[in-house]
Amino acid sequence: MRLKTPSPGEFELIERLVKNLRLTRRTILGPGDDCAILAASKAPQLFTIDSMLEDVHFRLEWASPEKLGAKSLAVNLSDIAAMGGRPTACVINLAVREGLDLRFFDRLYTGIRKIAERYNTDVVGGNITRADRLGITVALLGDASRTVTRRDLARVGDDIFVTGTVGDSAAGLAILSGKLKVRGAVREYLIERHLNPTPRIEAGLALAKIRPTPAAIDISDGLLQDLGHIQERSQVSAEIDATLIPVSAGFRAAMRDDLSLALGGGEDYELLFCARPGHAEESLTRALGVPVHRIGRIIKGHQSLVRGAGGMMTPALRGWDQLRASR
User: Fold this and answer.
1) Coil, helix or strand for 298?
2) Most buried residue among 228, 234, 310, 319 by CB atoms closer than 10 A?
3) Given pLDDT bands bounded at 50, 70 and 90, which one contains residue 327?
4) Coil, helix or strand at residue 30
5) Neighbour count for residue 196 (Cβ, 10 Å)
């Protein structure tokens, strides 16, 4: 969708976007100077960055500016959650194209501001540049817990768990892209799961308290691909039981017995983690405040095994690759 209204000027837009931001006491000086000033933290710092680019990660006709703004920050918050940390402050770069008016950016920042306030995150500055496509890049700081849930902590014999359900976001994207035909409440549910992910900040903080510290990652690029990152960093392999992978009733209604999007779809932003045997799903669910399901175990070797109801599986989708741009 290419709007024909004239774009705002840089400084007019900056002044408009930052005037309603609410900052915590950790921010000594917020937007308006060459740098923000943050109070020194006693905790080790987490630092992450992610970008969303028009016609690559989103299309404007798919969602309101508010939802787009909220998601642009949520995907970064999910990285902090995967490390068991607490978000603190971020800066935002907007690549602005012609045809987007002040009202659009007001609404975009309304979405950013609401999720920032929900997770106690200060928006302390940023940058604006001209581009051929709209782009939103967020660089986010967080405080680490006493222990950090890293990717290199998986051990042979660990159980593999996942929070929530997986595959919903990829199914929602398939609907928006015209690749999957679904109607009614199921359609709305799956699209909403794609457009409005929930970063598992509280679950990540609870996960970091488990001893020994679990390996963890958020599911952004697909369950199998993200599990592969844990395997690579921990030098282990994994065995997954596809019949144990948690999927929603909406996903099941849309996809029936096809689990390819649950295994390789991505953008669910749930937590995938590996913990020592003995942790029951019920106790982990209570501790993390979100449903937790065991889906497999860590084994020796260098190759993943995926077992389905009919035996060994070879999933058609492995996950998202930014440079290959395919799932």
Assistant:
1) strand
2) 319
3) very low
4) coil
5) 17
CATH of 151-312, one of 2.40.50.100, 2.60.120.10, 3.90.650.10, 3.40.50.1110: 3.90.650.10
Q: Which two tokens stand for residue 34?
A: 């060459």
Q: At what angle do helices 102-118 and 10-18 cross, to 10 degrees?
A: 30
Angle formed at CA 295 by CA 290 and CA 296, multiple of 5 degrees = 140
In degrees rounded to 5, what are phi and psi of residue 308?
-110, -175
**In one letter, which amino acid is 156?**
V
316: part of which helix (H) or strand (E)? none
- DSSP label at 273? E
pLDDT of residue 15: 77
Single-letter residue type at 276: R
199-257 pLDDT, tens digit per residue, is 999 999 999 999 999 999 999 999 999 999 999 999 999 999 999 999 999 999 999 99
